[in-house]
Amino acid sequence: MLNPSADESREPRDFYNRRADELGLAADEAIRLRGSYQAGLILLALLGFVLLYQAFVTKRLPIWMPFLLVPIGALVGSRMKRYQEEALRLRRLADYYNSGIARLAHQWDSLDGGQEFVDPNHFYATDLDLFGRGSLFQLICSARTQAGRETLASWLKEPTNIEEVVARHDAISELRKRQDLREKVAAVGSLEVSNCRPETFRAWVASPSAPFPFWGAPSAALLALAIILFPILYGLGMIGLHALFIRLGVVAFLEISVAAIFFRRMRSIDTSVRPLSVELPIVREILGIMERESFCSPKLVTLQNRTREAGAPIAWLRRIISLLKERDNPWTAYFSYPLMSGTQLTMAIERWRGRYGSRILEWLTDVGELDALISLSTYAYEHPLDTFPELRNKDPEIEAEGIGHPLLHEDSCVRNDFQLGGDVRFVIISGSNMSGKSTFLRAIGLNIVLAWMGAPVRCMKLRLSKLAVGASVRVQDSVIDGRSHFLAEMQRLRRMIDVASQTPLFYLTDEIMSGTNSQDRRIATEWVVRALVLRGAIGIITTHDLALTEIASDGLPGRNVHFEDTGEFGNLTFDYRLRPGLLTHSNALNIAHMLGIDTAAGAAARDDRSHGTPQQKPN
Fold it and tell me: What is the pLDDT of residues 3-47, one digit of tens each?
């Protein structure tokens, strides 16, 4: 299969470079203007001091003249703040495009590896490099929220059904053309990925309820009203000074009593909602974007409809929490106590949680799903040669034309055709060292994962049935658990057999049972293959041991293919093409010769002889 042209794939990289440069220059200009307004504000302040001196000390100017600078200073200050916010927004967008450039250039160290999602016990995540440095997650994740990152991770780990995949295809196809929407989402939040952490909201919703008695809210409101009303009545001459002090004293006593009764509940609520003050702004911004946009695909329309009513409640909760935090401000704290703002606001928050607590988790899930779909649409835009697979509800099968490894650069990725299913239930791939067996294994597995999460795949065409993936490629031993590499591999193979009994399985095994002798390896491998074939699974086995290739021609429905190298005496070349049949030679000694191991062994032998001590003759 010939590699497709890379000309089209260069277009996203060129656009990203151009856009990053434009945004960087615009951000620099905004910073320059912000500095100019800041300098202007300083000059206005100095001028104000001069005018105040002239007005109040020397009496040469009217008293009102210095105050003419107040509206001018407010205008200059607002402009300075505006350009500061604009510079931050432009920097966020520039960083977004720089991250895209890093993804296209495979600059792994500057990308999000999703380390917290690594699960050594997962059936294929570690084997296929789903997370960590040089992983699929780094290639597909451009999410701005933690909820989006978690959604992407769950889609990578858990395949969905055909209907959901088709719905995601439509949504990704629509979003792929919406660079403006991707920019809007990229501009929200801080410079880094937003801490829109679902567990923060879950912990708040699940925290123990602190119900207030029915008389709590009206009592606090009436006492706050009284503390305002009595001074007004005194000013109107309706009550005297003595009566004012008595009434204010009674109200203050009652306020202290009510606050003391509810103190622990107020403190608990205040502590639990503090983290939300960081999370809510970005949730509100993305919900606002979802509400204002116009979508066509059913998936996006459904998400929009589910969150249509979320804007006002989220904005109200954000406002309440902001007012509650104002009690930390010493300029407003003195007013908050007599007005019982802490008591009233915590009661309002508790009422909000009782009404919308469960729904906020649903809204956050929808925010994460939209963010994940935008990430996949970005991946689709960055890899225009990748295609959506054709998924089928039928017996296990895979038919790929021009399949390649998603983590390799498109212009250097060697593609192969591959077909499995029907009368052929497994393939044994033999091949010399470094010929591409493990890379091909992971290419198949990663494309299946991409297909069933709804993303484009690195194939010209891919037809695929519903398959769970099971992999034994990078099995780890454990000294702590007393588990050898061989035992760990056998346990993984046993797990494959169990899973194949429950659902259609595609298994991938690299250098199967390399930890035992050739005879036992041959027998045990056939047992595993027979068990998997009996349960309807299909899969790939790679090996150096040519004895295992006999299994495919020993009455089982398999076939042999291979990778090979050319050259000898330290001059090896690989074309990474999958060929039918058996490998006829090996290259281990040639590789040892390339590294000079044979030369080192010869030098060591000569050195031993030259330094050897002569034998003594017997007396």
Answer: 444 444 568 999 999 999 999 999 999 999 999 999 999 999 999
Rounded to whole angstroms, how far apart are CA atoms 195 and 185? Answer: 14
Tell me, rounded to whole angstroms, the distance of Cα 610 from its chain centroid. Answer: 62
Q: What DSSP assignment string belongs to 145-184?
A: BHHHHHHHHHHHHS---HHHHHHHHHHHHHHHT-HHHHHH
Query: To the nearest whole number, what is the mean pLDDT of the chain?
Result: 85
Say what angle helices 276-292 and 341-382 make with each other, to 10 degrees. 50
Q: How far is CA 53 from the centre of its chain?
A: 58
- Please name every residue paired with 506 in a beta bridge, in sequence order, or none if there are none: 469, 538
d(CA 442, CA 205): 41
N-term to C-term CA, the chain: 78
DSSP string, 479-546: TTTTB-HHHHHHHHHHHHHHHHTTS-EEEEEESTTTTS-HHHHHHHHHHHHHHHHHTT-EEEEEES-G
> DSSP state, 18?
H
Q: State the maximum Cα–Cα separation within the chain, in Å, rounded to a whole number.
A: 136
- Sign of the Cα torsion 433, 434, 438, 440 reads negative
Count the Cβ atoms, other than its own, within 10 Å of residue 179: 14
With contact defined as beta carbons under 8 Å apart, do 348 and 327 qualify?
no
Q: Which amino acid is at 187?
A: A
423-454 tens-digit pLDDT: 999 999 988 777 788 999 999 999 999 999 99
308 conformational bin, left if phi > 0, alpha if psi -120 to 50, beta if neither? alpha
Q: How many CA atoms, within 13 angstroms, populate the side-chain half-sphere of residue 52? A: 9
State the Cα–Cα distance between residues 539 and 427, nearest whole angstrom.
7
402: closest CA among 462, 467, 451?
Answer: 462
In this predicted structure, what is the pLDDT of residue 5? Answer: 43
481/379 Cα distance (integer angstroms) = 39
Q: How far apart are CA 411 and CA 361, in angstroms?
A: 43
424 strand-pairing partners: 421
Contact yes or no for 352/276 (Cβ under 8 A)? no
Angle at 439 between CA 434 and CA 441, to 5 degrees: 125
- Given a contact cutoff of 8 angstroms between Cβ atoms, the answer to whether 489 and 472 are in contact is yes
- Strand-strand pairing, 397-403 and 468-472: unpaired
* Alpha carbon distance 173, 184 (integer Å): 18
Instruction: Give the separation between CA 429 and CA 448, rounded to whole angstroms.
Output: 19
